[in-house]
Amino acid sequence: AFKNFSVSKGVWGSPWVGLDNFRDMAADPVFWTALQNTIMINLWNLLFGFTFNVLLALLINELRLRWLKSGVQTLVYLPYFLSWVVFAGLIGAFLSTSSDGGVINTILAGAGLKEIDFLRTPELFQPVLVVSNIIKTAGYSSIIYLAAIASADPALYESAAIDGANRLQMMRHITLPRIMPSIVVLLILQLATLFQSNFDQVYNLYSSFVYSTGDVLSTYIYRMSLGGGGNFELSTAVNLLFNVAGLIIIVFANRIVEKLDVMGIF
């Protein structure tokens, strides 16, 4: 990151250039677009995805029928075990235009309604990324929360029922406090990824039509280095900067959590 890297000379033999690579990064308008898109997508994921994961675990826990609970758990876990290549193919099968066989647009066209090009409309691409990420990863997070819920003493619920508490009150005063440490740890870890992005997801879904809202830091780094740019020192500088930023966010978030009297990660 601090050198003018040459493959023939290696890292130690390449000339030192100090902060030149970081200056080039700051002068590149494409970098700032990718940074803005990365932060926005991660904020939407944090706002909607994180909240949905907690809510999903609470709702699954409230299912009384064992076979129904097992069936719902299987359905929400299944997408997590698919690679993004396969999952992106499924998304394309649903969201592509009717001429490409997209299910939703075929239905819209059959009903005489205007088609929506989800994967080529810049304004819609970030919502597509957020929703598809929630669908694919919600099952994994819910496993962690359900495991924490399962460790709760059943006597607490029995005592609450005797005192006349309903299911909503039990959820609020027993279940949520029980999973709060898990929520805090996962929240801190997700805050650390504020400047990171899911390369597999974006690379398999985006195109030149949605670069303005879909290009993120991971795809920017790829294009600068392995994608043909050959600028390994610039891509390394970007990666170094935001890994350090992620570490700083983890430390500060953990300090705040400690002041709230909730167990953090350190």
Walk me through the structure:
The protein has 266 residues and is an all-alpha fold. Helix 3 packs parallel to helix 7, helix 3 packs antiparallel against helix 9 and helix 7 packs across helix 9. The chain contains 13 helices and no strands. The two termini are 29 Å apart.
Q: By helix and strand content, what is the structural category?
A: mainly alpha
Note the total helix count.
13
What is the H/E order?
Answer: HHHHHHHHHHHHH
Overall form: flat
Determine Rg (CA atoms, Å). 23 Å
Supply database-style keywords.
mainly alpha, 13 helices, 0% strand
Topology:
Elements (H helix, E strand, L loop, with lengths): L9 H4 L6 H8 L1 H33 L4 H12 L6 H12 L7 H8 L11 H29 L3 H9 L4 H25 L7 H7 L5 H4 L2 H8 L7 H28 L7
Helix pairs in contact: 2-13, 3-7, 3-9, 4-7, 5-10, 7-9, 9-13, 12-13
